[in-house]
Description:
With 158 residues, the protein is of the alpha/beta class. The protein contains five helices and six strands, in the order H-E-H-E-E-H-H-E-H-E-E. The protein has helices at 2-14, 41-63, 89-92, 99-109, 114-126, and strands spanning 23-28, 68-75, 77-78, 111-112, 134-138, 142-145. Strand 1, helix 2 (41-63) and strand 2 (68-75) form a beta-alpha-beta unit. It starts with a helix and ends in a 13-residue tail after the last strand.
Amino acid sequence: TSVIRGTYLGLEYMRKGNGGDGGVIINISSLAGLMPAAFQPVYCATKHGVIGFTRSIALAANMENYGVRLNTICPGFVNTPILQSIDKEENMGQYYSYKDEIKNMMQFYGVMDPSIIAEGLITIIEDDTLNGEVMKITASQGIHFQQYSQTPFTSSKR
């Protein structure tokens, strides 16, 4: 709920019709929000939710002329201490048996330095054309965007 509450709070203060100057809100999801993850079903579901919520509220903000853009970043594996936790059963619980699959995914997508995430953030902040976009960031493919078909029924107000 923190992503939803934080987004609504940001919109309240940032939107032009309410005295704000506009801007951009960037919500963080994960590659797990774009595909199933057997070893992380709840995490996966919440990350799917972040993407759906952000894309939906971006449409609403655009239709209401808030002057606020909303986008999502979906990083892959980032070189942080949490990656070491997959080798510890006490951290993984019932999903510990999936550690080899996780390691295979890490090898496939690669493990990236946090600086590439910062590069993606700067891109979204600076590019005023990006709204409702889902940026994927992986070591193997770099910064790229999820492709969606045209969303119907987005041009008219209520």
